[in-house]
Structure formats: structure tokens, C-alpha cells
Amino acid sequence: xxxxxxxxxxxxxxxxxxxxxxxxxxxxxxxxxxxxxxxxxxxxxxxxxxxxxxxxxxxxxxxxxxxxxxxxxxxxxxxxxxxxxxxxxxxxxxxxxxxxxxxxxxxxxxxxxxxxxxxxxxxxxxxxxxxxxxxxxxxxxxxxxxxxxxxxxxxxxxxxxxxxxxxxxxxxxxxxxxxxxxxxxxxxxxxxxxxxxxxxxxxxxxxxxxxxxxxxxxxxxxxxxxxxxxxxxxxxxxxxxxxxxxxxxxxxxxxxxxxxxxxxxxxxxxxxxxxxxxxxxxxxxxxxxxxxxxxxxxxxxxxxxxxxxxxxxxxxxxxxxxxxxxxxxxxxxxxxxxxxxxxxxxxxxxxxxxxxxxxxxxxxxxxxxxxxxxxxxxxxxxxxxxxxxxxxxxxxxxxxxxxxxxxxxxxxxxxxxxxxxxxxx
Length: 425
Hints:
Shape: rod-shaped
Number of helices: 4
Distance between the termini: 72 Å
CATH class of the largest domain: Mainly Beta
Oligomer: single chain
Structural class: alpha+beta
Largest sheet: 6 strands, antiparallel, barrel
CATH superfamily of the largest domain: Efflux pump adaptor protein, beta barrel domain
Radius of gyration: 50 Å
Strand order of the largest sheet: 3-12-15-14-13-16
CATH topology of the largest domain: Elongation Factor Tu (Ef-tu), domain 3
């Protein structure tokens, strides 16, 4: 319907319906409002949940762990855990006693050597010549001694003849006195020849010792773990250019691999937990599944004031071919009583798995021990039965399962079923 402009507002007779004009959609605004309302109603729960999650407290979490005894290992109570390196209890940087050029080397890395065996030789042609000269001097002194003895014996016989003649009045006193003087001189010459022989033989021994010093011998039974020189190099007891002062004139490092131990460091605050001969378990970083028996051998008598640590040595009692010097190892010190019971129990049956949670996850409520678990983003309270403490963890006899997530240092006022946010690590 349309109104012509010239038509008076009160003149209804001239009103006409325009059939060509499209109909108005009066329902469209209503549909739009309904759609917006439905979208808002659908988004409200999500928005409310998002806001609630953003307002939820942020918490640190940790996983419930389980210890299963490895072959030869145990789940016994640890006292302290430390890390260090495998070293040989008897190890030596073997060097030369005198300077010279290396003529022969009779070893490589991994060569087994016996105590006293020659592992290297220096060039010694000059010492050979000196030894030969000394030996010839001994022979010459021997000949001189023989001549002196013969002359002395002849002079002694002459003295006897002169005395017999003097008794018969045939010779003079002067002749007898001259014969006795000659005999005394001959005896002195014999003593001089004997001293010359002793001196020559001493020079032989000096030359022989100098020749022996050109040999490098193994100080004990062991294995060459490091070769430090090559044939043709000139070495000395004081080292050579480019060689560290600690090595000196070393040409090899020999270690007794039959007695290996872990060299580790313990903080001053933890030294009081250690006692002599304390049992321990040793694990190598290279072989995490293999457990070795250990025993505390020595706590060093001096501490490092700069680091506030004390060095400790732990003997590896059942080391095998896998254990090599300078490997990284961890040591778990155990209570002596726990280790003794472990040995007896091991003969009967393998140790049962142990479930552990961090101490910070455990709280007390009316005399009950409980932990807070996180499932998704919801916290729930769980009553647990606790066992022994293990450094910063504690055993759980019942109440949680391995792999579950627990809250560390749960915030005050946390309610069962409340929303929480897990801190990103």
C-alpha cells in the first residue's frame, strides 16, 4: 500500500495498494536475537569453565614412582646418593730413571704386564761401552794382583833364606833387613792391587746399574691404560716440552684393574651419615641395568674448604669387564643392617617393588597421612599408608598407584574436587 504525495493525510479515498512492493520481514530481528541468545547460552558453560580454570591455583606436581630391583640389586633403604668416576686403587704413571731416546716400546693400550717385566728400553750404546771398559779394568786389576802376589811370595821366601843364613852366620844383618823391607813393600802392593780390583768391580756395578736404568719395568701386575710416548722420542725424569708437570717423564699409565673403586665427593653436611665399611650399590652410567656391590673403603681425612666437600672412595667388589677407569658412576650408600637383611632375603626371593612419593606431596589431617592427586585439572584427596623415608622421598604401602600425579606442597584451603592448574615445566 502506498500514499501519493498529493493525497491529504485525512483523505482515505485515494489510498491504493501497491501490489509490486516486496513484503517486509518483520521476523528477521527476532531470529537474529534468538541466534545470539542461543550462542551465548552455548558459550556460557565453556566461558565459565575457562574463567574458573584461570582462577584455579597453580600447583607443582610429580609422578608416583616404583622401584623394581634390578638383577643383583635391591630396594634396600638408601642413606645417601653420590656420583663420581671409576678409578683404579693402584695406578702409576711409569717413567724413566734417566734421560735418553726411546729405543723400544713393548706395550700398547690394553697390554697386560707383569711386575718387573721390561716394557721399554732407552738407547744405551754409550753405557754398553762404559760397562765393557769397566769389565776390562777388572781383568787388568786381576792380572796386577796376581803379579803383586807372586812378587810378595818371592820376597817372603827370600826373607826366610836370609834368616837361615843369618843364623849360620853366613849373611849380614843388612842383607836380612833389606829382604824384610822388600817383603813389606810387596805385601803393600798386594793390598793396593786388591783395592784396585774392588774399585774396578764397583765401576762395573755402576755401569750395570746405568744400563739397568735404561730399562723401564712394570711396578706391579696390571694393564696399560694410557700410552704417553713413542719410539724415538727423547724423554727424561723431568718430562719434555708439551708434557704436563704431573706426568713428569711418564711414558705409560699402568693400573691394576683387579681393584677398582669409585672416587666421589660428599658434602660436609652428609659426611656424618657415612661409617667405615658401609655397604653400597654402584651403577655405571653406561650400564644402568647392572648393579655392582660396593663397600666404603676410605673417607679422606681432609676436606676441600672451597667446595665444602670431602672425598670418598668406594671399592667395587664384583667388578667385571664392563667396569673401566674414568667411567661415570653413581653410588647409593645403604644402612648396614638393611644391606645384611637384603643379602639374606635375596637368597630366598627377589625384593618386592617399592612405591615412592616425594615427601613434599604428603600432608597430615587429623592424624591421617594424605596426598592430593590431579586427574585432568581436578584435585582429589587420597588417604595413604606410609613406610620408611628415603632421602627426599617416602615409601607408600597403600593409597596410590605408580604413574599417578600428586601435588607438591598443596595450597592451603584446597577442597576435594577443586580445579587446579599444573605449572608448566
